[in-house]
Automatic annotation (TrEMBL):
GO cellular component, one term: cytosol
Family to which the UniProt record says this protein belongs: Belongs to the RutC family.
One of the record's GO molecular function terms: deaminase activity
InterPro entries xref list: RidA, RutC-like_sf, YjgF/YER057c/UK114
A Pfam family reported for this protein in Swiss-Prot or TrEMBL: Ribonuc_L-PSP
Organism this protein belongs to: Pollutimonas bauzanensis
SUPFAM superfamilies: YjgF-like
Domain of life of the native organism: Bacteria
UniProt-recorded name of the protein: Reactive intermediate/imine deaminase
Length: 128
């Protein structure tokens, strides 16, 4: 899959590990539902720890991507949902450790609450 990173100096530079936009070549587009930090075996949150929930959310997302026949490199767009935007830097650091460069396009949204009391959710669009 060929993805082209779109960047312009006439818009603000990315303030974290993401690209302004990503254009994807021909292929199968897969829209992933949001993943929170649930352990697959129990359906319960991995922990009350924000970082643990972020890592489990990304692991769950990766499992769905692989089930669709893709890899993390196929991500063209991520949306992050945080119940506490003061933890934005922590989410950025974890994402930068997990998601390969060049980073996909991304939005981050502060929300009042998430299912099961989760503190973080991630959704993705991939092109295979």
């Amino acid at each position: 899959m060929a993805k082209q990173i779109i960047h312009t100096d006439t818009a603000p530079a990315a303030v974290g590990p993401y690209s302004q936009a990503v254009a994807a070549g021909p292929g199968k587009t897969v829209y992933l539902s949001g993943q929170i930090g649930l352990e697959p075996g129990t359906g319960e949150l991995v922990s009350e720890n924000f970082e643990g929930q972020v890592r489990q959310s990304f692991a769950n997302m990766q499992a769905v991507i692989e089930a669709a026949g893709g890899t993390l490199e196929h991500i063209v767009k991520l949306t992050l949902f945080l119940t506490d935007l003061s933890k934005f830097a922590s989410a950025n650091a974890i994402m930068a450790d997990i998601i390969p460069q060049p980073f996909p396009a991304r939005s981050t949204i502060g929300v009042a609450s998430l299912p099961k009391g989760a503190q973080f959710e991630v959704e993705a669009v991939i092109v295979i």
